[in-house]
């Protein structure tokens, strides 16, 4: 085992897969000699050269479209979109082209594309650099969406994403980039679509994504002191998401809280809540609670107030415990 | 002017006729209600796809647009396969899921028509990048209309192609109309080829004359194949019919259409062939008859091809 | 009363509001002398001139951005985006700019913008001309989203949208454009955020949007014959949506079906299902059922199989009736 | 060269000094951790905002970018209000919700800095359209960097401005760098002004010399005010510091920075003023001292301004 930072997990995954497979190329703004705005490609240019580490103009739609064509012709591009908020300038490429090309062209070829992008707040970067838009992509058939929360998961999931023959959106969280964690020295991957129980418990299931996994773990410590043992499920993949793990846990705890950083309305939490209520309503001893950001843009100054945190998880857990039929 | 063998010229003529007759037949079967959705025909513009695609090998790539029948046929799709796709049949190259507006066939390097104006231009770059990366001598041709050059993707893609020196030829078929809007309403320049200077890309504007297009395309394709980078070819083309089949063109001056029809790229080519004695009435008649038969057979093939099973809907979203 | 088509309702709303308020302008592709791809602006150029009916290049991002600036400087632009699928090429303008400008600039001015766009299938127009993406916009704080289903509603809601000092996305459905319906001769508006009970009933609440309202009404006829009386609520606005009307109905029927044309995952149905399950779970006598499109792109050929219809509503209603606690 | 009164020239000099000293102070307080988020300073580029905005009235509009402090100050924002916003205080023009990267003040025609590269360009068109529509003689100035001209929005917006003949001046501050990437990596042309030809928009490239910029801007603003349509002004500017404060510019040749610093737009202007005896040491010292005081006061104002209440978060999303 070794301890690395989250962003190094990203880099190691790219590095290892590029070494293994010549068809993998990495495309983005400032990803060459600068090594990327968050350092994900530091040193990669030196190893793989400018043919495989491609520094582009500020033209996200152009980049994503190029990745689409390259994938259709046999390459396996990884695209970095510097901030998730910038996905708004290349939605056509992602949604109308990449997500649909395989299916609409008769399922005759594959579209192995990874789009990596950091979302979320934490840098006081304001309304146009802090959004969590993953639910949009989960609403689009033909895209897989993962949201790793630890160095271990990001490395393993990114490697799976690169090997996947389908388009995968990999959503990082800026505030996790510096997070340290252990990973094996040997090669490993994390399967897309599998959740991970980050802490087991018996009283309340907390399904969390990305940064909110850590907030839920923090909440867990506080709640433990009150005698409440929550089970923290790190969803890891939001499309497809791991119904089995969630259902098993709810079947045990009979209480569910869902926590993400995105606003609640039409977020992935709504989907999970809906599916649980539809399919295993009888298992619930109390209404499901969702934790998410308030329904306003992310303000530059009040980010700390804005961001959902462990306190919100504690409150939601307590609320769902209030009532026992 | 490039020297072409008689045989080759007859072949090009045949290809142009095939496209026109195919479009005419499509208008007919569409009016019958046999084809769902909407279709955009390229009658009046046949010279460009044939002149440009004749420079290409099967392994070269081509990306095109909603007005894409001519390009697909010129790039080598068989009429029966083509028709089956437009009829939405399971044996079409896209299993009937694409239809006219998204027809693709990677076996022939056809990257796909596109329902999004400007959507295909960055994708074409990707194909060009892939072949450059693999160090093949493949080139990519990307067709679009003058309307598409107002989209941001046109700009981004040409800049990227220039920076990366991609082996790609951008071909703008300027037919003067974007849906129901004439060029003068949506841009202040006349020659779209001027836009290439923003990226230091060589460019040329040619008329709808087959040989002009052919020569310009040949030079640009050669350039790309030699690794000298992208280029932009603009053809001053003309759209005879409505934006889509069924559009009565009420917004358009009859005289303008008449003028366009008078300088028919096919008629001009035919006249040349007759003058040069490459073509005569008899051969011409045979060509027309053969193509009619071929097209009728394609329609019949499509009609009798299996409709998709409902169960196909959910098949193979994922690779 | 008079009978008009849905698309005429659109035009009448624009016409009346443009007559009343000089600040209203109409911007889009082919909207001038051609009168719009679906005829929404037929004749408007003649009345209002090319200064107010603005035909643009094919540059959706440019158009939407222009509307943003114009609204910030006192105009009230209505933008037509020809197909909802094309919203993908102008998401930045809508999401990062229009939705946020008021709030992020200190709530000191208003952003009266309407973006009208037809979504949904019905024309066999294939994967890039048939999508229902309204949930994306409901996920964005700062946007209102309405989905009128009748000539009456579209006229009234569009008028409200034009008068609203906030950005409103008006989602039409192409297959409804030709629909006829009665509207008053006199002026009226329909309030944004209010649902409408299109048919009352006692057994099952069916919350539907847009075209699925009509499918639900069709289902209602079939179900009536089986002795099941559904209450069909036309949500009309999806952000904000009318919790009160939905809750009242569920409080009466204790059964809920939600029907929309978009795919279920992360659709607006997930949100409604989640909110109902969270806030009034005790009212439910059976799990909520959602009706939505299958999780694949809209194929050119199998559109009829793809589109959810009255049969799906019937099945969902029957399923939710199977179980009575 | 335009004739300017001594008083005016002193004013311009003062404005440039204010911007530079403000940026220097910001680097200091940012390093202290007093300003959240990140900030982009425009040291080295001060001539452009001052020369351009001096052509404008309060009622004229201006849209700018992440590197927007200079533009906002030149367009008339008071240092204390400016600083309060950057400190995230409730009494800032945007209640502290915008900060550096989105600062706007519609009372001064400041449409807003923008966190999205290229995001502000179409918005500026909208302001220009509004004033044209209302038949005022307002003009709009839109600032952006050379990196932004690779975005599709640049292309779409310039085309629209041309077609609509909007009263707008596009000003590209070409500082040679987009984040950590030099111009040559992301475009193959040198003069961004060449891109205006795609839209038949008059354009000019000038050096970082105040008077050159001033004269070109004056002509273009006059043109716009007379209803003659849009124009593009490119300034060959230079960025002395990192992309954001804290960026150590390891990717950049020291010599290049030294060269840039040697042709300092402010030093050159000052030299001219000294030579022409418009400025002397005494006046200069007073200007510097006054501005230091003004800036200190602004920082003090911001520091002592109220932090937002948590309850403000949910206030007034809707009008
Ligand atoms: C992004 C987008 N905007 C608008 C449309 C609607 N549309 C389809 S074709 C067309 C006109 C295209 O004109 P041009 O590029 O000149 O091609 P032509 O039809 O003349 O071949 C438009 C506006 C679209 N499909 N996609
Ligand atoms: C759409 C988008 N892509 C990327 C970025 C990240 N980014 C911020 S500033 C910048 C460079 C801009 O360069 P330029 O336009 O030359 O302006 P300068 O910083 O030199 O003033 C980039 C890439 C962004 N903010 N928005
Ligand atoms: Mg055209
Ligand atoms: Mg720059």
Features:
heterotetramer, A: 325 residues, alpha/beta, Rossmann fold, 2 domains, 7-stranded mixed beta sheet, 5-stranded mixed beta sheet, 11 helices, 37% helix, B: 319 residues, 6-stranded parallel beta sheet, two-stranded antiparallel ribbon, 12 helices, 8 strands, 45% helix, 10% strand, binds thiamine diphosphate, binds magnesium ion
Descriptive account of the structure:
The complex is a heterotetramer, with two copies of chain A (325 residues) and two copies of chain B (319 residues). Chain A has 325 residues and is α/β, with parallel strands linked by helices. In chain A, 37% of the residues lie in helices and 20% in strands. Chain A has helices spanning 6-20, 44-48, 60-72, 91-104, 134-138, 151-163, 211-225, 243-253, 268-279, 303-306, 310-322, and strands at residues 2-5, 24-28, 53-55, 76-80, 114-119, 144-146, 168-173, 180-183, 196-199, 204-208, 230-234, 237-239, 256-263, 289-293. In chain A, the strands form three sheets. Chain A has a seven-stranded mixed β-sheet with strand order 3-2-4-5-7-6-12, sandwiched between helices. In chain A, strands 9-11-10-13-14 form a five-stranded mixed β-sheet, with helices on both faces. In chain A, strand 2 (24-28), helix 2 and strand 3 (53-55) form a beta-alpha-beta unit. The N and C termini of chain A lie far apart (46 Å). The model of chain A has no long low-confidence stretch (mean pLDDT 97). Chain B has 319 residues and is an alpha/beta fold. Chain B has a single domain (6-303), classed as Rossmann fold (3-Layer(aba) Sandwich), CATH 3.40.50.970. Chain B has helices spanning 6-31, 47-53, 69-74, 79-86, 99-102, 120-133, 152-164, 183-186, 210-225, 254-262, 265-275, 281-304; strands spanning 61-63, 110-112, 140-145, 168-174, 177-178, 181-182, 203-206, 231-236. In chain B, the strands form two sheets. In chain B, strands 2-1-3-4-8-7 form a six-stranded parallel β-sheet, sandwiched between helices. In chain B, strand 5 and strand 6 form a beta hairpin. Classes of the chains: A alpha/beta (325), B alpha/beta (319). Chains A and C meet through helix 4, helix 5 and helix 9 of A and helix 4, helix 5 and helix 9 of C.
């Amino acid at each position: 085992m070794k301890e690395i930072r989250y962003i190094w997990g990203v880099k190691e995954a790219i590095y290892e897969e590029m070494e293994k497979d010549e068809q993998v190329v990495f495309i983005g703004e400032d990803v060459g000699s600068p090594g990327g705005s968050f350092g994900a490609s530091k040193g990669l240019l030196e190893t793989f050269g400018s043919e495989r580490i491609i520094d582009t103009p500020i033209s996200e739609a152009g980049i994503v479209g190029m990745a689409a064509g390259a994938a259709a012709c046999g390459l396996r591009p990884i695209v970095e979109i510097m901030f998730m908020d910038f996905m708004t300038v290349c939605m056509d490429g992602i949604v109308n082209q990449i997500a649909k090309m395989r299916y609409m062209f008769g399922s005759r070829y594959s579209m192995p594309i990874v789009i990596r992008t950091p979302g979320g707040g934490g840098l006081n970067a304001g309304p146009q650099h802090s959004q969590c838009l993953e639910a949009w992509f989960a609403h689009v058939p033909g895209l897989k969406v993962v949201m790793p929360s630890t160095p271990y998961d990001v490395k393993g999931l990114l490697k799976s994403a690169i090997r996947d023959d389908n388009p995968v959106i990999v959503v990082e969280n800026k505030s996790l980039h510096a997070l340290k964690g252990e990973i094996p020295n040997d090669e490993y991957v994390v399967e897309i679509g599998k959740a991970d129980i980050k802490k087991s418990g018996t009283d309340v299931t907390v399904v969390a994504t990305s940064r909110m996994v850590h907030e839920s773990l923090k909440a867990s410590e506080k709640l433990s002191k009150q005698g409440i043992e929550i089970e923290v499920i790190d969803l890891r993949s939001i499309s497809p998401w791991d119904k089995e793990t969630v259902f098993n846990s709810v079947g045990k705890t009979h209480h569910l809280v869902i926590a993400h950083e995105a606003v609640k309305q039409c977020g992935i939490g709504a989907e999970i809540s809906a599916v649980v209520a539809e399919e295993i309503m009888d298992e619930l001893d109390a209404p499901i609670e969702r934790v998410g950001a308030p329904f306003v843009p992310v303000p530059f100054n009040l980010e700390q107030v804005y961001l959902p945190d462990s306190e919100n998880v504690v409150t939601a857990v307590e609320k769902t415990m209030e009532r026992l039929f | 002017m490039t020297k072409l063998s008689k045989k080759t010229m007859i072949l090009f003529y045949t290809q142009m006729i095939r496209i026109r007759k195919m479009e005419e037949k499509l208008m007919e079967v569409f009016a019958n209600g046999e084809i769902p959705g909407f279709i955009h025909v390229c009658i009046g513009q046949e010279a460009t796809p044939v002149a440009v695609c004749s420079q290409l090998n099967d392994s070269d790539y081509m990306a095109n647009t909603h007005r894409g029948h001519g390009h697909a046929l010129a790039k080598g799709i068989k009429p029966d396969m083509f028709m089956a796709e437009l009829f939405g049949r399971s044996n079409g190259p896209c299993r009937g899921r694409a239809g006219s507006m998204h027809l693709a066939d990677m076996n022939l390097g056809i990257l796909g028509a596109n329902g999004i104006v400007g959507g295909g231009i960055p994708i074409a770059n990707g194909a060009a990048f892939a072949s450059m990366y693999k160090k093949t001598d493949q080139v990519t041709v990307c067709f679009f209309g003058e309307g598409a050059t107002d989209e941001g993707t046109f700009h981004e893609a040409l800049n990227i192609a220039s920076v990366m020196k991609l082996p790609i030829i951008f071909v703008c078929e300027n037919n003067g109309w974007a849906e129901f809007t004439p060029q003068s309403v949506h841009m202040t320049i006349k020659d779209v080829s001027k836009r290439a200077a923003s990226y230091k890309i060589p460019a040329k504007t040619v008329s709808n004359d087959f040989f002009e297009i052919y020569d310009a395309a040949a030079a640009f394709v050669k350039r790309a194949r030699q690794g000298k980078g992208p280029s932009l070819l603009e053809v001053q083309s003309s759209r005879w019919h409505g934006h889509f089949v069924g559009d009565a063109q009420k917004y358009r001056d009859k005289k303008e259409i008449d003028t366009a029809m008078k300088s028919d790229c096919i008629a001009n080519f035919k006249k040349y062939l007759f003058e040069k004695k490459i073509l005569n009435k008899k051969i011409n008649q045979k060509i027309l008859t053969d193509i009619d038969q071929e097209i009728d057979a394609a329609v019949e093939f499509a009609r009798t091809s299996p409709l998709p099973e409902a169960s196909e809907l959910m098949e193979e979203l994922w690779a």
